[in-house]
Structures are given as C-alpha cells and as structure tokens.
C-alpha cells in the first residue's frame, strides 16, 4: 500500500472534483488509515464494504482498479468499531442527527469525521487537511447547525465531546461555565500547526 501522502495524492488525482472540500476530506481520512489505532485501520470506519466501494466510485471515479480493490480489501479486513469501548458510535450519531441533507455524502463524511476523531492530533490534521479553516468549511456544508453551535470556536474534538456529555447529561467539567474555567486555553486555544508530516507533500500540492 502507498504511503499516506502518496495515496492522498493518488486519490485526489482520481477525483471527479479534486477541489471539492468534501472530496479532499474523504481522501485525507482514507489515506490516513495506517496512522490510526489498529481498531480504526479501516479507510473509513462504520461503512460496509459495498457502501465504501460506492464512495470510491463516486468520489474518485478515475482511481486505478488495482488501488480500488486494495482499498476495498482493507475496508473488509479491518476490525469493526466496538460500540462498548469508545465513543465512535456516539460521535457518528451526533453528526448524523445534525445533518443538513439525507444524502450519502453526509453519511460518508459523518463516518470519516468520527473515524478521524479516534486519533490524537487536531481533527483537521487527522483528516489530512491542509488547515483548520477547511475543516470548518466541510462541517458547515454538511452539519451547519452543529457548526453554528460552536460559536466560541472551541477546538472541534473538545466541542464534539462536550456535546456528547451534554446529551448524556454528564457534567464532566467542575467549572460552572467555560468563561470561568481555568482550563479554558486547553479547549479554546488555537489549533495551530502544520499538516501531519505524513501528509505534507499532499498538502503542499493542494496549495501549489
């Protein structure tokens, strides 16, 4: 299998619209599978093999058949998320409940975002995106209400998990509000940084 950067470039070169932010996000998550924990080594967790094959055919119609088959095999052989051990299914439900449209792309992206959340970097980095701004564009396009709820510009992973706590009526923070919390910089500090080194060539190509 190609390196994350090379696979990302290969997918974008095969895209129907390589400038579309949703396509770029899906390519980044697919290409970053090898960088995630083993239980999330599927190109996009939460999708069945046939649904994933349809994603490849729709978003990356010019992908070479050998690469298509290799990715499909990777999707089939990867472990399936365990609902009892982590928050994947809750994150997926949160995103899906806030979808703007009942369309397949929103489902694909909800699964992709939830998959990327299982890694340890900033979400935009774990999605192989060149900037946090592009992540905002993607979320606003498919989940505008949820995007709007983050009016304080909280870090996206922190924001999603706070939403899950609020849904479950779990008050994990000791402070009565974010404005008086001593840990505010942890949640609202800038998500500065460079794209992950594994994606750097692809990110440079996007800005060329």
Features:
208 residues, mainly alpha, 0% strand
Q: How far is the first residue's CA from the last residue's CA?
A: 25 Å
Radius of gyration: 17 Å
β content, as a range? under 5%
**Proportion of residues in helical segments:** 40-55%
Number of helices: 12
Main beta-sheet strand count, sense and barrel state: none
Unreliable stretches covering 5 or more consecutive residues: 175-182
What's the average pLDDT?
84
Question: Would you report the number of β strands?
Answer: 0
User: How many structural domains are formed by the residues?
Assistant: 1
Order of helices and strands: HHHHHHHHHHHH
Structural class: mainly alpha
- Overall body shape: globular
What does this structure look like?
This protein has about 210 residues and is an all-alpha fold. It has one domain (about 5-205). It has 12 helices and no strands. It has helices at about 5-15, 20-30, 50-60, 65-75, 90-95, 105-115, 125, 130-140, 145-150, 155-170, 185-190, 200-205. About 35% of the residues are buried.
Concise account of the structure shown:
This protein has 208 residues and is mainly α. The chain has helices spanning 4-13, 21-31, 49-59, 65-77, 88-97, 104-116, 123-126, 132-142, 144-149, 156-168, 184-188, 200-206.
